[in-house]
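Shape is hard to put into words, and the shape of a protein is harder than most. The fold becomes a row of whole numbers, each drawn from a learned catalogue of backbone shapes. The outcome of that step, for a single protein, is printed below.
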Amino acid sequence: MTRSDTQKRADFETVAVPLMGALYQTALSLTRQPDDASDIVQETFLRAYRTFDNFRAGTNARAWMFTILYSVFTNRRKKAGREDANVPIEELEAKYWQFAASAGPSPDEVDFGQLKSAEVEAALNALPETFRSAVLMVDVNEFSYDEAAAALACPVGTLRSRLFRARRLLAAALHDYARREGYTRSKER
């Protein structure tokens, strides 16, 4: 290795390696398969290293790496021909309003990024991929709306819409769990 190659590798390791755990957890949430998640993370790191000369020091490395991860994920999904079944928005809205009529908490009352359990994982995995990705980027990985929209290659308004609907679905699915764990207050009638 030349000096520049050695420095490039050291800089890359400093920037990228600390993100490996978060990238793997997000890939696992997207794919639901440990082997697929590992493959996606490996390809993410390979692509990031190959294009590391384009990365500008001082910019958001985390957003850059997650953008690559999501790109790898969507490219693999398209290549495999596996698209999530699109759930009609009307059906999702009907589920939420059915739940809301039973006096459940508003989605703003629950911090989905702080909930950890098999129930939460199941509720998150039940979301359509576009909704799940939005929640993972904003609520779990704490990206700004602009960063998440860039990583998911969609307008900010679309991201906000997906988050709004995803949070409503999660609130409905996790109502009993959130109350049991003390994340919400019981509403008096």
Remarks:
- The mean pLDDT is 81.
